[in-house]
Design brief:
Elements lengths: L1 H4 L13 H7 L3 H21 L8 H21 L7 H17 L12 H23 L17 H13 L1 H34 L1 H6 L1 H38 L2
Length: 250
């Protein structure tokens, strides 16, 4: 009964939106969520920065806090050169953070739980950081794959390992975000469905029996909020680390 009533993976199903135009353009609910996230981000920062008060209000304080947080992340990880890449890292952080958060609300689509989205973001970071490496160092960037202080006879073994490790970056970056968000949403829906099934099957006694699942759902909601922020931070900090390697080659 539970298996038939709880469709934990149904929340990730793609559907076309925006009526006939959406069907013609293959514009899915995932695209709608991404477009909505971008509009909300621009709106938040437009409203937050509009007053430009010396004593900031709540919205301006939130915007300035996020700005300083990501700016310090870039400078501390990459160095002063990190300010050049701050707009990119900040955009990625804000987009992923909001994408993680809106997926926690009913009737909203968690686009960061789709591997196609996370892989596209990870590939962009990978190609961009590699381009920065070649732009900064030219063909000397290939020395990044040659560990320093290693005997020459070990290089035929270690260089391929370094190359494979470098090429696996977009895979690990995308799977980490996708897997964490998907697993959290599935677990949350399973426990919520179990609570509803228990209440419906036991009648008035089910209300008392569902207290424990309800408590677990509240705890899972708090955990999901933490994971949403943490995964956005991890994606941003790893982007900074990849850019640091591209700029400094170590």
């Amino acid at each position: 009964m539970a298996a038939e009533s709880i469709d934990a993976l149904g929340q990730f199903r793609l559907t076309t939106g925006l009526g006939p135009i959406g069907r013609a353009l293959n514009f899915t609910n995932s695209n709608e969520a991404m477009l909505g996230a971008a509009i909300v981000i621009v709106g938040i920062f437009a409203l937050g920065l509009k007053p430009r008060a010396l004593v900031p209000g709540r919205m301006q304080s939130l915007v300035e806090l996020l700005y300083e947080f990501v700016r310090n992340m870039c400078v501390d990880t990459i160095g002063e050169e990190g300010l050049r890449y701050f707009p990119l890292v900040f955009t990625l952080f804000a987009f992923i953070l909001l994408g993680n958060l809106i997926g926690l609300f009913p009737y909203f689509f968690a686009f960061t739980s789709h591997i196609a989205v996370t892989l596209a973001l990870a590939l962009f970071v990978f190609v961009f950081s590699t381009g920065v490496g070649f732009y900064t160092h030219g063909f000397r960037f290939f020395k990044f794959f040659v560990p320093e202080g290693v005997p020459g006879w070990l290089l035929p073994l270690l260089v391929p390992i370094e190359i494979i490790s470098y090429l696996s970056r977009p895979v690990s970056l995308s799977v980490r975000l996708f897997a964490n968000m998907t697993a959290g949403h599935v677990m949350w829906e399973v426990f919520a469905g179990f609570m509803l099934l228990l209440t419906a099957s036991l009648g008035i006694y089910g209300a008392f029996a569902s207290v424990v699942p309800l408590g677990l759902n509240v705890a899972l909601a708090a955990l999901e909020l933490l994971v949403a922020g943490l995964q956005a931070y991890v994606f941003a900090i790893l982007t900074c680390l990849y850019l640091h390697d591209a700029v400094h080659m170590h």
